[in-house]
Amino acid sequence: xxxxxxxxxxxxxxxxxxxxxxxxxxxxxxxxxxxxxxxxxxxxxxxxxxxxxxxxxxxxxxxxxxxxxxxxxxxxxxxxxxxxxxxxxxxxxxxxxxxxxxxxxxxxxxxxxxxxxxxxxxxxxxxxxxxxxxxxxxxxxxxxxxxxxxxxxxxxxxxxxx
Length: 162
Hints:
Order of helices and strands: HHHEEEHEEEHHH
Helix content: 40-55%
Number of helices: 7
Largest sheet: 3 strands, antiparallel
Number of strands: 6
Mean pLDDT: 83
Strand order of the largest sheet: 1-2-3
């Protein structure tokens, strides 16, 4: 592959030759997180299907959904989780156990430990951490929980965060 960037080789970014050249290039490491970052919206695709689209996409424009569910609550959960999945896990287990267990690290620093190797806990903790930092994703998660859960969460929050 030559050292030219696509913009150096063509006069118009919409030229079919330019677009074909883009497809031949490798994406940088940042492409995968960008692919999932969103924002994501749930769109009804009929009476029994719900698609998850980027905020600027739509079925009317011919865009394909990232995923489709029969249940709108599941589509909302997917829309909430996708941005969280775009980031590196916040928590990891160190492979060298101590007498207290496996060290849990966050940003390279030990912040806890688990008695057993629990990779699933680290994934769940990382996702929950991301959701707690993203108000839009957290709102989608709460919407997906439904009205009864929202009412109970509201009552719990009214008593004060402890």
